[in-house]
Structures are given as C-alpha cells and as structure tokens.
Amino acid sequence: MEYTIIDALIVLKPKAEWSLDGYDYSGLTWLDKNQTKPTEAEIEEKLAELKYQGEINVYQEKRKLEYPNWEDQLDKIYHSGVDAWKADIKAIKDKYPKQTMDTAELKKRKDAAIFNLQKRDYEKAAARLAQYELANGLTDENGNYIIEPLPVAVGSGERNPLIVQDEAERAAAQEVINNTPQAVIDSVSS
C-alpha cells in the first residue's frame, strides 16, 4: 500500500482541520486552531513508520487468504474435533508468523526519511541559488546581457518587490544549504 501525506496527517493530528493542494507538504494549508501544524520532517517520519507497519501487517493478509471460511472451520471442529482444527490453524500461523515492529529498524527508516528530505531540500535550494539574481540580470560569456537586470527601485523609490522576493528566496535557500549535514551534501555530490 502506498501511504500519502493525508495518511500521516490523519494519524499525527486526528480531527485537525487542514486543506491540501496537490500531494506534498508545500500544498498543506493549516486551518486548525487547536492543533499545531506538523513539520515536514514529522510527516516524513510518520510516513516511514506507516510504510514499515504496512509491511509488517502483510502476514495478516496472507493468513486470511489461507484460512478456510467459517463454515469449513466449524465443520472441521464438528467432524474432527477442536484439536484437529487447532492443528490446521497453527500450520497457517506458523507459515506466516506474526511480526512486530523492531525499534532499531524503525529508527533506521525514520533516519533515512529525514536524510532523503534533507537531500531534496538541499537540491531544491542549490537549484534556486543557481538561478540568476534579478538585480544583476544574466550575461553571456562575453559579459553581454541575455536578461537585463531589474530596476532596484520602483515608483517613489521603494525597493522593487520582485528583487526583495528574489533576495528573500535566495537567503532562505542559502540557509538550507548552510544547515544541511555534510553527509547529505556528499550524497548529492557523488
């Protein structure tokens, strides 16, 4: 089964009010006044946990498919006795043993989910920083403008809102780069 941000939100914040535009965290609008919005990292960790739990629960589905229907089970008990019925059921249970969540494995999976989130964020930030600065324009190898710089001031001398937004986005991207663990950066570089 494929789990989505919706599944994680339902488990993390039951009965919370929110809306989702698309399928990822950037489209999440938090409307709830009583519960705080979960972080993207919390959602990624919960998705890793849900996926792991889903893998563990596969044994239940396999058992269900092999168990005889109730009528046949009752017929077995009637004709052969409870011990014969128990032996048949035990054989199926032994074939598909109950599994439990291993805390070390769960931690490993959550760590991997956070690592992958950091990697995605780093790549997105690096791509944002690779874009030209609106205030400087874009030049070719000879220094000729391919894209003219935007004027720094507009109207009555206010800073151009597009440049302000560009600078804010670049600063946020640089902050992501600065806070990315070296192991994540190395995984992108290799």
Major sheet description: 2 strands, antiparallel
How large, in whole angstroms, is the Cα Rg? 28 Å
Shape: elongated
H/E topology pattern? HEEHHHHHEEEEHH
* Counted beta strands: 6
Please identify the structural class as seen in this structure. mainly alpha
- Please estimate the helix content: 55-70%
Total helical segments = 8
Distance between the termini: 32 Å
* Beta-strand percent range: 5-15%
Pick out the low-confidence regions: none
Mean of the pLDDT scores? Answer: 94
Physical arrangement of strands within the biggest beta sheet:
1-2
Structure in a nutshell:
This protein has 190 residues and is mainly α. The protein has 8 helices and 6 strands, in the order αββαααααββββαα.
List the keywords:
190 residues, two-stranded antiparallel sheet, elongated
Task: Please tell me about this protein's structure.
- The chain has 190 residues and is mainly α.
- 60% of the residues lie in helices and 8% in strands.
- The protein has eight helices and six strands; from the N terminus they run αββαααααββββαα.
- The protein has helices at residues 5-12, 40-56, 58-66, 70-80, 82-95, 103-130, 161-179, 182-189, and strands at 18-20, 28-30, 138-139, 145-147, 153-154, 158-159.
- Strands 1-2 form a two-stranded antiparallel sheet. The protein has a two-stranded antiparallel sheet with strand order 3-4.
- The protein is elongated and about 95 Å long.
- The two termini are 32 Å apart.
